[in-house]
Structure formats: structure tokens, C-alpha cells
């Protein structure tokens, strides 16, 4: 997918969450470890919810910000989440799955932080800050849930 505008960026982020949700769901069915399988099921639902939330940004964001050209996207280290096979997570342990998912969200937050530092228009800065806030809040919620699952 070619990312030229912030509208493209948000659509790309939504697609990443959707792909990850599908991959986690398929992996849950194939993971032999009960705890890991339960985590994959939970994470799949969480990523589906993030897909839905991100789609709301596409509908509600300032049109001026959405049409703003995005020049530095390709200077950011590319994500590899969409290149992993669908059953990638089926062979991982509980801790390995958690590490992978937190790494994915850390990469996305790092991208938003980099874009925020370079935002020249207030509308763009507001949009990227809202995306960053959403990712940070969801990551904290996810960390609490994973910790509570790990305690069981």
C-alpha cells in the first residue's frame, strides 16, 4: 500500500490491526498450549476492537488533516507484522506472544511520535496526538490484561 496522506496512514494502521486480529485468531486455534491459546483469542478480539476504533478516525478526523501529504513515512523503519504467516503465533509461548504484540504496538507508537514531532499543521498534530493517545491507552490496558492472565 502506498502511503501518501494521513488518510492513507490511518487506513494502513486499520489494516495492520485487522491483519493481526485475523492472524492471532487463526493461531489461537492451532496453539497447543491452553494459556497461549487463550491469550491469542483475547489479543485477536483486542486487535479487532483497535481496527474498529481506527476506522472511526477515518470517519471523524478533520478532512484537512486527512488530505495532508505525508512525506517522512518511508523514512521510518517498516513494520513486519503484515509479512508474518497467518499461523505464526501458533508456535509461540505465552511470553513470546506477549513480547511480539507489545513490540508491534511500540513500533506503531514510535511512528506516531516521530510524525507528531514533524507535524506542521495544528489539525495534523491533533490527529496524530489522538492516534498516539489511543495506542498508548490501549497498550496500557492490554498490559494490565496480559499481566492478570499471566497471574492465573
Can you walk through the features of this model?
The chain is mainly alpha-helical and 152 residues long. It has one domain (6-151): Ferritin, core subunit, four-helix bundle (Ferritin). Helix content is 73%, strand content 0%. It is built from five helices and no strands. The protein has helices spanning 6-30, 34-60, 63-66, 94-118, 122-151. The radius of gyration is 16 Å and the shape is elongated.
Key terms for this structure?
152 residues, mainly alpha, Ferritin, 5 helices, 73% helix
Average pLDDT score = 89
Q: What's the Cα radius of gyration? A: 16 Å
Helix/strand order:
HHHHH
* Full CATH superfamily name: Ferritin, core subunit, four-helix bundle
Q: What is the domain total for the residues?
A: 1
Poorly predicted runs: none
How would you classify the helix and strand content by structural class?
Answer: mainly alpha
Percent in strands:
under 5%
Return the CATH architecture. Up-down Bundle
